[in-house]
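Lab notebook, design round three. We kept the backbone fixed and only want residue identities now. Task for the bench partner: fill in a sequence for the structure below.
Input structure tokens:
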């Protein structure tokens, strides 16, 4: 995967588009940090690619949530403990809403 800077995109767009055609994907950076992924798509498959990207982002988010739960030990809660947490959170929300 090749990295290109925002400056390169602005000053040398032809070179960036050629790299994109060759590589398929590029990582766009700003101040040395990745800020975006540029992926080549066609007229006929751009919606399919977008759906796949969104699905991959959702899967990555679920994986992060699961890792965080495991680190807190929440992955070992029993059904009774889970239901107690839900009930407590709902009660707190109700109390908060009535205070306002």
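Proposed sequence:
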């Amino acid at each position: 995967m090749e990295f290109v800077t925002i400056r390169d995109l602005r000053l040398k767009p032809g070179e960036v588009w050629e790299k994109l055609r060759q590589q398929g994907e590029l990582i766009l950076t700003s101040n040395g940090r990745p800020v975006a992924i540029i992926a080549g798509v066609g007229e006929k498959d751009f919606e399919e690619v977008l759906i796949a990207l969104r699905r991959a982002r959702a899967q990555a988010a679920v994986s992060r949530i699961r890792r965080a739960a495991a680190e807190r030990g929440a992955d070992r809660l029993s059904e009774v403990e889970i239901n107690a947490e839900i009930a407590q959170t709902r009660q707190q929300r109700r109390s908060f809403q009535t205070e306002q």
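Keep this in mind before ordering anything: The chain has two domains: 1-40, 43-100.
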